[in-house]
Design a protein that fits this description.
heterodimer; A: alpha+beta; Ubiquitin-like (UB roll); DNA polymerase, domain 1; 2 domains; 5-stranded mixed beta sheet; 5 helices; 5 strands; disordered N terminus; B: alpha+beta; Aldehyde Oxidoreductase, domain 3; Aldehyde Oxidoreductase, domain 4; 3 domains; about 25% helix; globular
Chain lengths: ~170, ~750
């Protein structure tokens, strides 16, 4: 990613030691606060899926190679399977469920439907979260850029040309 | 008449898929859910001599640890029969954790159940296993000397040897011969959704949410394994996150999830890890194929000999049917096809997209390219000269064909005829540019059992059709709404498919490109029966404006039945009679095996590559495919599926390879970081033309399916383009950097 100044990796004020047993963790997801009691080893992905019933982010590999779990933390795309949930306290998590506003699809979601940018749909939440983030990252001006910066999200149905078409449609409209 | 069929409608399940609302088998919330994790054998041959579960059992939250010492024995092991046949369909005739023997690396040897996923995963790592290990056999080099010729493969459906004419005579008549051996890496399906089952017992009834290509296949297989009546096993599958054959047969995890749930008295979710996807649901086997072609000077084939050698499991005679399409493709009077197998420490191989024909047609189409070069003929011209007017395998006429149009239109779109035939003649900077083509053929395989669907029209005019099939990316829900709309003559947006549940009418597993044909057949017949039933009701109803009309004179448009000036809508008919709905079943009896037609889907593939001969890089710059898949139900989703298949061909040609460690008998690259699949940067834009051909034999709507044909031949077109670019014949898949520099 091109973004600099990662607040996620900065060392904060002296942190209390918590765990290894279950601890209370407060997560802000899609604008709503949630309190969960989880072990510190719980990934953001499993916290979202198994504790908050936000199953839009998918588990395709659990090792950071497929991108199906892509969500945003403070607006940056991250792999939720490689992110510990408790490190997201005091950060804003956005999942695909938080993208549509009042039932109105985000233009990228609409473009994915119109361009048929998916088949089975399993990687789609991650693709869309990556694609919307890429709009703001400044690497999607041409197809080579889209190809490169969307290559962290595998689509085994191989809808890639249509994913690029959906991205272009939104980029050129907005 | 409405004409919903063929229209490029958006997917009806687009909205749930782009909003994260679509629930896959791991997304079904249940109170008090427990989680199962599997422990896998670290050896590939031998036995478990000790298994210490005490440490795992002491971990917080652990509910059960199951091994061969305490897992209940299965009730019966059904035979291996492809799931399209409509019966139980185990992926292999072996069920793990029944004894201490280890047959292959990664075999399930224990299962831990805990109250959270993290605790189950951690405890699984604490199961201590000791082994007695014997040297494994896994590679072709290790097994070649023990090869045998089976009587039959594929559960007896395909003979081990097929002959027509006399191949030796044919070779003796040839002016030119080409003989070449092609080697293939093994492949893994790697759908992004790993295979997952969530199991729940409701008293003595088992409910499974399973990632499967056929809910009935899961139901039948699990019921047989656990000794349960079919009426006590219900399987649901709303959305499946890709399959590509990896969920076509029913492997061990659904039954294991059910056993785990029964043991702990809670719902259990069992999601395979990515690594386990390499050793839990089959694979496309590593293989070697040898082709001998004989031809006259004018290019006409006189002989085709096609032999295959591949490893199978200790339990089953399985090879993907690589000789099928290649034996049907060209007019050739003398043919010999032989499968040879050897027993290896691997699980039973299985279907993977374009099963058999992705490899068999690669061999044939690369050999044809070599033959064209030897004869100084254009590769396309050579294929035209060997066009098969009838099915060479049976001598029967084709139910439909379209291949000539595919050649013509594909070549025109691609610009094939401008090609300089000399290899290595075209250069752009550091890149050598080449083009190649190949033919595509995939047999139409009807299911063996009747296929059923139900159609229901409500008094508000809306329509629901029901069939048990799951949706794994094919767009079935969209296409079947289109089929129902045309059969009933109602607007397509009033029609909806309810699917993915064994409580709905039975559909065989949607495999081998059969789904669209067989499901549309059942839905079409059900909806047509409902239309006829409603017309019959109206003309017999003394209060209907249509009373007394001849049913054959009644036409329906937008849900309104009309005969001359009299008309009445379906909805009015039902409402006046105080009927909330009306429904009808449709049952399609597929064409029997002795149907006197050759049935196959054809296409033509073209590819342009750029090769950097110093760095060994290969980039596919563009691909064109022309296909004749019978009737197209939705031209948008069909194009997407064909495109996906072509890009699978790219992946198989250049990327995909599971690597076996010959000493340990284990895969060494069991992750998506190391087993390479095509990513966005690998995928060029793809150009597709669809040639619609009428087919009155395969099924009522003449649908031949598109799941496989896009992949067949795409790999060969790329390999032939690499040769054209560089002058180098690479007779293996994938073609990698080492093959070029």
């Amino acid at each position: 990613m091109s973004s600099s100044g990662s607040t996620l990796t900065e060392r904060g004020p002296a942190l209390e030691e918590r765990g290894p047993g279950p601890v209370n963790v407060t997560l802000s997801v899609n604008g709503a606060e949630h309190s969960v009691r989880i072990e510190p080893r719980v990934s953001l992905l499993d916290a979202l899926r198994e504790r908050l019933d936000l199953t839009g982010a998918k588990k395709g590999c659990d090792q950071g190679t497929c991108g199906a779990c892509t969500v945003w933390v403070d607006g940056r795309r991250v792999l939720a399977c490689l992110t510990l949930a408790m490190t997201c306290e005091e950060h804003e998590v956005t999942t695909v469920e938080g993208l549509a506003r009042d039932g109105e699809l985000h233009s990228m979601q609409q473009a994915f439907i119109e361009e048929d940018a998916f088949q089975c749909g399993f990687c789609t939440p991650g693709q869309i979260m990556s694609a919307v983030a890429l709009l703001g990252e400044g690497h999607g001006d041409d197809d080579d850029g889209i190809k490169e910066w969307m290559s962290g999200n595998l689509c085994r149905c191989a809808a890639y040309p249509h994913i690029r078409a959906a991205f272009r449609a939104v980029r050129d409209r907005d | 008449m409405t004409t919903a069929i063929g229209a490029p409608l958006d997917r009806v399940d687009g909205r749930p898929k782009v909003t994260g609302k679509a629930r896959y088998s791991a997304d079904v919330p249940m109170p008090d859910m427990a989680y199962a994790c599997l422990v896998n054998s670290r050896i590939a041959n031998g036995r478990v001599t000790g298994i210490d579960t005490s440490e795992a059992e002491e971990e917080a939250g652990v509910l059960a640890v199951l091994t061969h010492e305490n897992l209940p024995r299965i009730a019966s092991q059904p035979p291996l029969v492809p799931s399209l046949a409509g019966g139980p369909a185990p992926g292999e005739t072996f069920f793990p954790m029944q004894d201490e023997v280890v047959h292959y690396g990664g075999q399930h040897i224990a299962m831990v159940v805990a109250d959270t996923y993290e605790r189950a995963q951690h405890a699984a790592a604490l199961v201590r296993v000791s082994y007695e290990e014997s040297p494994p056999v896994t590679t072709i080099e290790q097994g070649r000397d023990q090869a045998y010729e089976p009587d039959a493969i594929f559960a007896g459906f395909i003979p081990g040897r097929t002959e027509r004419g006399d191949v030796r005579t044919g070779l003796s008549q040839a002016d030119v011969q080409v003989e070449a051996t092609y080697t293939y890496a093994g492949n893994n399906h790697n759908p992004i959704e790993t295979s997952t089952t969530t199991a729940r017992w409701d008293g003595d009834e088992l409910v499974l949410h399973d990632a499967t290509q056929g809910v009935n296949a899961t139901q039948l297989t699990v019921a047989a394994l656990l000794g349960l009546p079919l009426s006590k096993v219900r399987v649901k599958s709303q959305f499946v996150g890709g399959s590509f054959g990896g969920k076509a047969m029913i492997w061990h995890h659904p039954a294991l999830a059910a056993l785990a749930a029964r043991k702990v008295g809670r719902p259990v979710k069992l999601a395979l890890t990515r690594e386990q996807m390499f050793t839990s649901c089959g694979h496309r086997e590593v293989q070697e194929q040898k082709i001998t072609l004989g031809a006259k000077d004018d290019g006409r084939l006189t002989a085709l000999r096609h032999h295959k050698l591949s490893p199978t499991s200790p339990f089953d005679n399985w090879a993907e049917p690589s000789l099928n399409a290649a034996g049907q493709m060209y007019a050739c009077p003398n043919y010999e096809g032989v499968y040879r197998l050897f027993r290896a420490n691997t699980m039973t191989p299985t279907f993977m997209r374009a099963p058999g024909d992705a490899t068999g047609m690669f061999s044939l189409e690369c050999a044809m390219d070599e033959l064209a070069e030897r004869l100084g003929l254009d590769p396309l011209e050579l294929r035209l000269r060997n066009f098969a007017d009838v099915d060479p395998a049976s001598g029967n006429p084709w139910s439909s064909n379209g291949l000539s149009e595919c050649y013509e239109r594909g070549a025109a779109r691609f610009g094939w005829h401008d090609r300089d035939p000399r290899p290595g003649a075209r250069r752009e900077g550091n890149w050598l540019i080449g083009t190649g083509m190949a033919a595509a053929c995939y047999p139409v395989t009807p299911p063996n059992t009747p296929q059923r669907a139900r159609a229901r029209l409500y008094a508000d005019g809306s329509v629901v059709v029901q069939a048990s099939t799951p949706e794994f990316g094919t767009g079935v829900a969209t296409a079947m709404a289109q089929v129902a709309a045309d059969a009933l003559a109602v607007p397509v947006d009033r029609c909806r498919l309810e699917k993915g549940d064994t409580d709905f009418p039975q559909i065989a597993a949607a495999v081998a490109s059969s789904g669209a044909g067989m499901i549309s057949a059942a839905v079409h017949l059900a909806a047509t029966a409902l239309r006829d039933q409603l017309i019959a009701q109206a003309v017999a109803d003394s209060t209907s404006p249509l009373h007394g009309a001849n049913p054959a004179d009644v036409v329906v448009r937008d849900g309104v039945m009309a005969a001359g000036s009299a008309s009445e809508s379906y909805a009015d008919l039902l409402r006046r009679n105080l009927q909330p709905d009306a429904e009808a079943m449709g049952t399609w009896n597929p064409p029997p095996p002795d149907t006197p037609y050759g049935m196959a889907t054809f296409g033509a593939q073209f590819a342009e590559v750029a090769v950097d001969p110093e760095l060994g890089l290969i980039r596919v710059r563009r691909m064109t495919g022309a296909f004749a898949p019978g009737r197209v139900l939705n031209s948008k989703t069909v194009r997407s599926q064909l495109m996906g298949g072509m890009l699978w061909g790219l992946g198989q040609a250049l990327l995909e390879s599971n690597h076996m460690h010959p000493a340990t008998g284990r895969w060494v690259n069991s992750s998506l970081g190391e087993y390479l699949v095509a990513v966005n940067a690998d995928a060029p834009d793809v150009d597709i033309e669809i040639i619609e051909v009428e087919d009155g034999v395969v099924n009522p709507l003449g649908v031949k399916g598109v799941g496989e044909i896009g992949q067949v031949g795409a790999n060969a077109a790329i390999a032939n383009a690499v040769h054209h670019a560089t002058g180098r014949r690479v007779r293996k898949m994938p073609i990698t950097i080492e093959d070029i520099i």
